[in-house]
């Protein structure tokens, strides 16, 4: 309901109460901002790699403040690289929370998570491109577009 309509209702309530001999009261109704919309967040990454050498492109965890998993992460390849291999694995990883997040204590321990690796072909030198995405059980989706320069 728009704020103007809410204020109008509060004023009407106040006038009706005053007309009946009651003490007039005005209620101020404030609309609080909602949580960020849950939609696809586009992330662009630029990386460098050596021919034939595996690099980690990304890792993620979804944790409670006590460092236990708080849900699931589902990942998938949208656009495969032309000159190498993209691998998505369930593997322990070290999170990277920043203060004042209470999960910063989890940074010292490997916890269940997802990791994405890219291995360029051993004889390839140039640029490669790939797209993958992850979705969390709490409704957040991130789509990663990665450009890799291979030496």
Please state how the strands of the largest beta sheet are arranged side by side.
1-7-6-3
CATH third-tier fold name of the largest domain: Immunoglobulin-like
- Report the CATH architecture of the largest domain: Sandwich
User: What's the end-to-end separation, in Å?
Assistant: 58 Å
Structurally, the number of domains stands at 2
Give the topology string: H per helix, E per strand. HEEEEEEE
Shape: globular
- The helical percent reads 10-25%
Describe the main β-sheet briefly. Answer: 4 strands, mixed
Tell me the number of helical segments per DSSP (H or I, 4 or more residues long). 1
Strand content: 35-45%
Task: Describe it.
The protein is mainly beta and 151 residues long. The chain folds into two domains: 1-32, no CATH class; 34-150, Immunoglobulin-like (Sandwich). The protein contains one helix and seven strands, in the order αβββββββ. The strands form two sheets. A four-stranded mixed sheet has the order 1-7-6-3, with no helix packed on it. A three-stranded antiparallel sheet has the order 2-5-4, with no helix packed on it. It is globular and about 45 Å long. It starts with a helix and ends with a strand. 10% of the residues are buried. Mean pLDDT is 84; it is low at 1-18.
């Amino acid at each position: 309901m728009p704020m103007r309509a809410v204020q109008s209702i509060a004023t009407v309530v106040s006038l009706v109460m005053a007309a009946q001999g009651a003490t007039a009261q005005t209620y101020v109704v404030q609309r609080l901002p909602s949580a960020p919309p849950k939609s696809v967040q586009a992330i662009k990454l630029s990386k460098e790699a050596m021919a034939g050498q595996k690099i980690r492109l990304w890792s993620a965890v979804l944790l409670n403040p006590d460092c236990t998993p708080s849900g699931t992460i589902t990942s998938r390849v949208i656009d495969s690289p032309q000159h190498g291999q993209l691998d998505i694995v369930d593997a322990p990883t070290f999170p990277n929370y920043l203060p004042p997040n209470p999960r910063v204590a989890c940074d010292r321990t490997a916890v269940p998570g997802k990791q994405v690796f890219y291995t360029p072909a051993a004889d390839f030198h140039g640029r490669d491109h790939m797209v993958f995405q992850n979705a969390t059980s709490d409704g957040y989706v991130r789509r990663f577009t990665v450009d890799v320069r291979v030496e």
